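Q: Could you write out the predicted structure for this multi-component system? I'm mainly interested in how the pieces pack against one another.
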Amino acid sequence: VHLAESGGGVVQPGRAQRLSCVASGFVFSTYALHWVRQSPGKGLEWVALISYNGKDTYYADSVKGRFTISRDNSKNTLFLQMNSLRVEDTAVYFCARDQDGIIPNFYFDSWGQGTLITVSS
Amino acid sequence: SSELTQDPAVSVALGQTVNITCQGDSLRRYYASWYQQKPGQAPVLVFYGTNNRPSGIPDRFSGSSSENTASLTIAGAQAEDEADYYCNSRVRTGYHGVFGAGTKVTVL
């Protein structure tokens, strides 16, 4: 199992950025996936969940209405569209696979290496 | 409440046993999972559910749960176990996740 995030960088407050996570080594379309973030020097924060087929999505209150999680099962790729970025969104963003694909159980059994988003003017 | 509470730091002598606890209302309904994170690295799942250890995780890592408290035990701690440990669970209502603030384990 391999997950690889990309799309990080420095972004101005109020602007948008899209993260990608390319997966390999497993049947991508049968697993729910999450985004988890970690602000510099801080703990982990769950951000969003998408079901195996992309039909159901869920968000942390801190990002709801600004972030959109999506997936392209034909390309084994997970996305996080981040709009109206704030300074407090500065973090390393990890994609993570849910251990139980059909009914998410929030056991994250595989993680990418993370990509850093810095929101700063 | 959707919070999970962990002690900020614990220390353990080399070869001894350490218990890391995690408390929260969500644990009354859902089992916790535990993650080890070393500096500059992604978290690694070390224990989850009722009694599950991922492949490749040493059997000195074990977990337990009672009412609103989950525990991770490292029996015979090794130098390489020095890391931050986070608990996580699904919140009591809805498909949201919550992490504890993490426990820094120092092996003396």
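A: Regarding packing and overall arrangement: The mean pLDDT of chain B is 95.
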